[in-house]
Amino acid sequence: MTDANSTTNAKLTVVRALDVIVAWDAEQREHIYLHHADLVMRGTQIVQVGGHYEGPVDETVDGRGLMAMPGLINMHSHPSSEPGNRGLLEELGSAKLGQSSLYEYMPVFRADISYAPYSNQVAVAEMLKSGVTTYVDMSLPRPNWAETVAAMGIRSVLAPMFRSAAWHTSNGHSVEYTWDEAAGFKAFEAALAVTKSAFDHPSGRLTAMLCPSQIDTCSEALLRAAQEEARRQGMVMQLHAAQSVVEFHEMTRRHGRTPIEWLDDQGLLAPDLIIGHGIFLNDHPSVYWPQADDFRLLAGSGASVAHCPTVFARRGIAMNFLGRYEKAGIRVAMGTDTFPHNMLDEMRLAMYASRIMARDYTAGSTAVVFNAATSVAADMLGREDIGRLAPGCKADFSLVDLQHPFMRPAREPLRSLLYSAGDRAIKDVYVDGVMLLHNGELLTIDVDRALAEVEASQRATLAKASANDWAKRSVEMMSPTVFRVGGTPS
Questions:
Q1: Which of 83, 97, 253, 331 could disulfide-link 304, Cβ–Cβ 3.0 to 4.6 Å?
Q2: C-alpha 191, offset from chain centre
Q3: Is 359 part of any domain?
Q4: CB 241 within 8 A of CB 193
């Protein structure tokens, strides 16, 4: 944890006398606490963690009363669309489609892609405020996507989505698929153009992964082509799979194999695959398929899982269960998937849901969830330079206010943050050594402007929602307000 020589003449900044640093012990490969210590960065890189820095300094930041922690990594998000669903989908699901909102309602409330840049800004603002410095952006390809993300200053993995089929329901209790293999490969080509724009971007903060949309909407040929190209370019691939009861039974109907078994049959279940959600294994309480052993297959494959508890908890669904996956050696990272894009809230819920599903208070520990949002996620992305604070790593970190009332007493600062204070205690956030959040205020995003555009987007979406619904219901019939709208009380 000592000084490391820098070969650049970039600005040197010391965050002096931090009360706590969540530092990385490279030898033991674990986070540790350091007390009353300095954090030193030169340009985009950390050069010293711990001790007292004695050399020349360009800028000093007072670290008293603060904790430095590594920037969080959001492994699964849909920021180009989700903010516009606020007020619509929180209590909405299909009773006859496994309680999911995917098939009946998501297509009805889909926003026009022209509003995506503003939605993106709202989502990233929420991420930064909750300590996220790197996020995986799973969106449809669009012009100037890389520029929109780069302008916000955050580190991003662009994950353009593509598929061979679209789903819909014409009756509210069954799902139909419309296949167009040529369109799927055309979308794949558009995705490759996005990945190139990310790797070529001069900011150096953008990378990419391939993201065939869902296991049940992608042909075997499209998935194989995506895997081959991802491996050729040294990328990982992320695929929604084992995410719904409908999908589980669709795959067993088509193939007589569970989603996990089918991925294994095709050679796709491998260390370079991240499974989005990975909830509905054959032994999940919501499905019954005793002939399989998905958990053993998943654990032995080296494939990883992106875990997003909030979107499922809203519909009475939970992974079975996070602590079990971790103990079996299955790498699990955290994601937001839905609105709000608040990683600290997701991490708290992940701990609680795991313990409830296991009926065991030890089943979802603070350490497991913090690792999932930092070092484990970095490993899944093939990165040793993010998700941890150590010399040679990127200067991506948050400063947490230990004097915030909800942090005190701060005897165990990560517990105080995750169980009590949440994003209210995030004071400053740095990416590549550049401050993007100061005293809780965003420096690179005009949030009010972005929110106004997202509100306009929602109005436009609601205006055509009834026409897009299979039953032509009104918005109020599909997503009623919490209380009826009445006249003035007498």
A1: 331
A2: 19
A3: yes
A4: no
